[in-house]
Specification:
The chain has 2 domains: 153 residues, Sandwich (Jelly Rolls); 112 residues, Arc Repressor Mutant, subunit A, CATH 1.10.10. It contains 11 helices and 8 strands. A hairpin with a 2-residue loop joins strand 3 and strand 4. Helix 5 packs across helix 7, helix 8 packs across helix 10 and helix 8 packs across helix 11. It is globular.
């Protein structure tokens, strides 16, 4: 999914032959949370500046706004997946550390599960239910929520579980989604907090407070992280100068690019380009 497709928020499920994507699959992103599992063989997945070796039968959960790309796949690898709008997840009141990890680009790779059924069979059943009516779709959401909560439990064993998000009214969830959509659709150009807040019908200070309450991040931190990820993609896939990359990723000038990139990535854009080219 390309940035121009950001309006296509919604529930979607997919199955594809991963081998066919190798060499054709560009670094891309999408605004939903993705739940994915591989069948028959594993893949090598670039996720931001990380490279993950994903084995078959392991459920993987991540937020798609961090750019990702399949760079290698085993023979016969099939990817089954499910994309879920982030606003649908907010009412689940997930623990703050887990939710923040998702927004900050952590990939959750789960242990293989066989009881009460494998995750591959589970996702295939969701695909079949999606072809049904409203009740079937509601059944999917209940099952997805149950499985995500199990993932939360698995990854929260060594973390405090007491810091859950507060229950939010539907109006606050809708406003947070609008803020997120506005940021993800406009971070590549100069945009100010007041404009972002106005898109959700909010005052700047109220929007800042809501965004931090839900995500644990400020609007500025979130937007900067998106710009850094976009700059990484340009560093890897283009011969643009730093001035060109700064302009296309929303920073506006090389000094701003260098400052933000160094803070978020702990290295300069030039070092990142040369290091990643060797992988």
């Amino acid at each position: 999914m390309k940035p121009d497709d950001l309006e296509n928020y919604g529930l979607s499920v997919f199955s594809w032959d991963v081998e066919l994507k190798v060499g054709r699959d560009l670094m891309h992103y999408h605004p939903e949370i993705e739940i994915m599992i591989l069948e028959h063989a594993g893949v090598r997945l670039r996720y931001g500046d990380e490279v993950h070796e994903i084995e078959p039968d392991h459920l993987v959960l991540f937020w798609g706004m961090r750019e990702h790309q399949v760079v290698a796949a085993g023979t016969g690898a099939i990817s089954h997946g499910f994309r879920l709008p982030i606003a649908w997840v907010l009412p689940w009141n997930l623990p703050r550390p887990f939710f923040n990890d998702l927004l900050r680009g952590k990939m959750m790779v789960c242990e293989v599960r066989s009881e009460p059924c494998s995750d591959i069979d589970l996702i295939k059943s969701w695909k079949n239910l999606l072809e049904g009516g409203l009740l079937e779709k509601e059944a999917i959401l209940l099952q997805v929520r149950a499985r995500v909560l199990q993932v939360v439990a698995e990854f929260s064993k060594n973390k405090s579980n007491g810091n859950k998000q507060r229950n939010l009214p539907a109006s606050a969830i809708a406003r947070f989604e609008k803020l997120t959509r506005t940021i993800t659709g406009n971070y590549m150009r100069p945009i100010h907090g007041a404009e972002i807040a106005a898109s959700a019908g909010m005052h700047h200070s109220s929007a800042m407070r809501l965004f931090r309450q839900v995500s644990g991040l400020s609007i500025h931190e979130f937007m900067t992280s998106l710009r850094v990820e976009h700059a990484k993609q340009l560093l890897l896939t283009s011969d643009l100068t730093m001035e060109g990359i700064a302009g296309q990723s929303g920073f506006g000038s090389p000094p701003r690019l260098y400052a933000a990139f160094s803070k978020f990535s702990k290295q300069t854009p030039g070092n990142y380009r040369s290091t990643m080219a060797k992988i």
